[in-house]
Design brief:
2 strands; mainly alpha; 210 residues
């Protein structure tokens, strides 16, 4: 069945189909830069960019992936708020190369999570929450979630990444109800993170006075 761009869709939703296409390209080329990966996801799309930059932080790959991709997401989110349609990333992030093995691991971990979200998606629900204005406003929660992802909190990426996956898939499929669910998850994530940071700060202050 064709998607809204007139392309043939593989089984599953738009997000899983594009991720599999990107992975096949990475296998052929032996890896992709972040810029190449975003281009491989299809026409320039804010939702695809959010999705791709979020999911590596969910993957158990050695290295500061949370900080790198969280920083990239923060930059993207500010451009979303400003109404940007063609997103820009600095060369140090855009040209960062990811091996096909790493992308295989990333997609392998991400697709099952995304597929679960796609099962609940229905196009054109609550359309007032899927338009350009709402998309621009979503840059604010995306920025907050990006900051959480960039923080060195053990196992602290799972909920913010899942919230971003829900928001991105909802935007791709134009499902306002799932967008609303994503915003509720974002609120829960920020609340839990603030509570955790307050607890850690209290523990550090107590340790200093012992």
């Amino acid at each position: 069945m064709p998607d809204q761009d007139g392309n043939r869709r593989t089984p599953g939703g738009v997000a899983t189909a594009r991720l599999r296409e990107m992975l096949e390209l990475a296998r052929v080329k032996g890896g992709l830069s972040i810029g190449e990966a975003l281009e491989a996801m299809g026409p320039t799309s804010i939702a695809f960019t959010i999705l791709f930059l979020a999911i590596p932080a969910l993957t158990p790959i050695p290295g500061p992936f949370g900080m790198v991709f969280g920083t990239a997401l923060a930059l993207v989110s500010l451009q979303i708020v400003a109404g940007g349609r063609k997103l820009w990333l600095p060369a140090i992030i855009r040209d960062r190369r990811v091996s096909s093995a790493a992308l295989d691991l990333i997609v392998g971990h991400a697709v099952p999570v995304i597929a679960r979200v796609e099962k609940f998606v229905r196009a054109d629900r609550l359309q007032a929450l899927t338009g350009p204005t709402v998309q621009a406003l979503l840059g604010i929660p995306v920025f907050l979630l990006a900051v959480v992802i960039a923080l060195p909190i053990p196992f602290g990426n799972i909920l913010p990444v899942f919230s971003l996956v829900v928001l991105a898939v909802a935007l791709m499929e134009r499902d306002g109800l799932v967008t609303l669910i994503g915003l509720l998850l974002t609120s829960a994530t920020i609340g839990m993170t603030v509570a955790l940071l307050n607890t850690l700060a209290s523990m550090l202050c107590t340790a200093r006075w012992i």
